[in-house]
Amino acid sequence: MNDGLAPSQRIRDIPHYWAQTTPAADALWENGESTTYLALDQRIDAARELLVERGVLAGDRVLLVAENCVAFVALIFAVSELAAWPVIVNARLSPRELQVIRDHCRPRLEVFTVGASPEAAKHTARLDTSPVGEFGRFQLAVTPTRADSVAEAESIARQVAALIYTSGTTGQPKGVMVPQVGLMHFCRVSSRSRDLSPADRVYAALPMSHIFGLATQLLATLYGGASLWLERSFTPAAACSALANNEISILQGVPTLFARLLAHLAETQTPARFPRLRYAYAGGGPLDPTLKRDFESVFGLTLHHGYGMTEYAGSMFITRIRRPRTDCSCGEINEGCEVRLIAADGKPAAAGETGAIEVAGPGVMLGYYREPNLTHETLTPDGWLRTGDLGYIEADGSLHIAGRGKDLIIRSGFNVYPIEVESVIASYPAVHLAAVVGRPVSAGDEEVVAFVELRPNAQLHEPGLKEFLRERLAPYKCPCQIVVLDRLPITANGKIRKQELRKRL
Length: 505
Fold this sequence. Notes:
By secondary structure, the protein is of the alpha/beta class. The chain has helices spanning 13-21, 37-53, 70-81, 95-105, 118-124, 154-157, 180-193, 211-223, 236-245, 255-268, 289-299, 372-378, 418-426, 462-470, 498-504; strands spanning 26-30, 33-36, 61-66, 85-90, 109-112, 130-131, 141-142, 160-165, 175-179, 201-204, 227-230, 250-253, 279-282, 303-309, 314-318, 332-333, 338-342, 355-360, 385-393, 399-404, 409-411, 414-416, 431-442, 445-454, 481-485.
């Protein structure tokens, strides 16, 4: 790819560069209609003028309540160009969830993409909003400008590309201040890792309110001069249609996306004939060996994997396109990132030993907005990020995730990593998805409980599953209870809501 963007430190430069270099090239596709890079650049300018007219300045927060659409993309770049902070929120949040974020970030202005998102329109029905004139394909509603919203100092304002609130599945959402320099560095690394070029078209159903959707799907794709096929949300039928008929060459998503896609193909007996698809990547959660095996068997493609998080502006590890792996490793460390593993005693973990993962590099967040104590708990004095994850590194440098530190189950003094148990359960023929949580039974001791979602038309023979697990797991790892659900609860970005499962117990 062209390295003309390499010295840039601001995300707004990405579409502007291609508008000057290849103005007629496709940038975005929405409802089957193309927006060129030049047209996108013009719509960003129009959005910026709209924001300026409403008094948005550097250091202000602008809440964007939206689903994937051209207007959403233009607004993200326009807010950032003003050195204001786009607070990127999925319109499918509940009114309570949205209100928590509104109260915390205190936005100067709130913008809703009502023309492209019925969910965004629903929020405006209970809020003080007014429609604005259309700008290109824009159809927006905005709140009155808040006079009591205080702008952040320009010195910090220009460093922040976006304010992304974590999903909050384990508690109160936290606003991550994502750095401009970190996102731009990741764009370069990520676009190269996929060999992106203007010939590529990327399927974009991941919500851009999540770091995966913002960094890997949107920004890295445009950095490479490729185009995005925008979908408001993921449905297997729409994905299959797009892959078959719209020259999609790259498919990215969380593991549940691929699991739902495979289930749809099996249920409808649809062959996986997707002529241009050349690269598939699962991130945002652990990759199950059964899912990887099934996908590769059906699609005839390697299912790549990586490891990233909101607090590090994208992925820290990724499998290489020219070195595909047969295991579920997260791959090799990305350029610019450093990693260290810390044992339970606080000392560096020995080679091959599982430890707490800490990382450093340009992608490390600038902190949690208005949460200095949480920031202090997460960032070490020497600038390393405590990820909260556990893992080990093999001799070849590949990272394997053992699980979240907070998800670790202590059973009769033994450590149980849910990811291991989930992988074994998911390999049982009737099981589609599995999630394992701990249920406290006494001080310092927990039981292992499994929630499962079955494959289409399958029935669970629970004694058979328990025998299957006894043959493959140590007794202390075997679930004491198996709960069958029609659907496992998932977040808007496709992660399983384990906190909700714990509440069921």
